[in-house]
Each structure stands twice: as C-alpha cells, then as structure tokens.
Amino acid sequence: MPSSVAEIPAAAAEIAAVHYAAKLAFETDCSDVHAAFASGKVDFVLLDARSPTLFAQAHVPGAINLPHGKMTAHRMSAWPSDTLFVVYCAGPHCNGADKAALRLSRLGLSVKLMIGGMTGWADEGFSFEQGVSTAA
What we know:
Elements: H1 13-26, E1 27-29, H2 30-39, E2 45-48, H3 52-57, E3 64-65, H4 73-76, E4 84-88, H5 96-106, E5 110-115, H6 117-123
Parallel strand pairs: 1-5, 2-3, 2-4, 4-5
C-alpha cells in the first residue's frame, strides 16, 4: 500500500515541465525580487497593492504604492507598454495582489505576482521601509 504522497502517481516529466514553466510565468518570489534590487538589475516595477496607510507603516524597499482600484489605463500609461509589473499585498491571506494582477493583465500589461507578499518578505528576513512613495 503506497503512502498518501505516492498514492496518486506524479505527472510525466514532460507534463510537469510544462506545468511549472507556466506557473513561473505568473509568479516570482521574494528572494528573486530581493536579489534583483540587491544586484541593481531591476527590470520590473514593484507595486504594493495595499492601502496607502499600510504602505506608509511598512513596505518592501523599492516598491511603489498603487492600490489595485487605482490601476487605470490612464495611470498605467505613465510606464512604457512593455513594462513588467510585479505586484504584492499583505500575504497569502490577502487577494489584493491577485486583483491587481487581474486588472493589469486586463489592461494588456505584463504582470507577475510576488508570492508571499509582506508575510513572505518577513519570513525571508528581509527588511522593510517606512514612509510614502506613490505612483505618479
């Protein structure tokens, strides 16, 4: 009798590769975002989709506060159309980043979700900033 892990066989390697490649097209993690900022190779715009009050209390360094409800075509036209946006919110218990990603993708923009959000950032031991920094 197999374990509950092996009870359902793993997907074939080719199918697994397609699945995980697709998954990574939708998301990035806190460690990769941190590494990009640390190396100076920031080829994306990091957007914090939480409220301005929460953003001012603490946010990921380099992030711009832009709640998902304010992500309009006019507002987003401040960036080139080929900009990659990375969005985050409070963490796994919050769907603000998902709403932001949906809104941006419906505007025809490239977007990835930073999985873990603020919770993931803290779990990695990375520091936060305080203060106000909003989108133009």
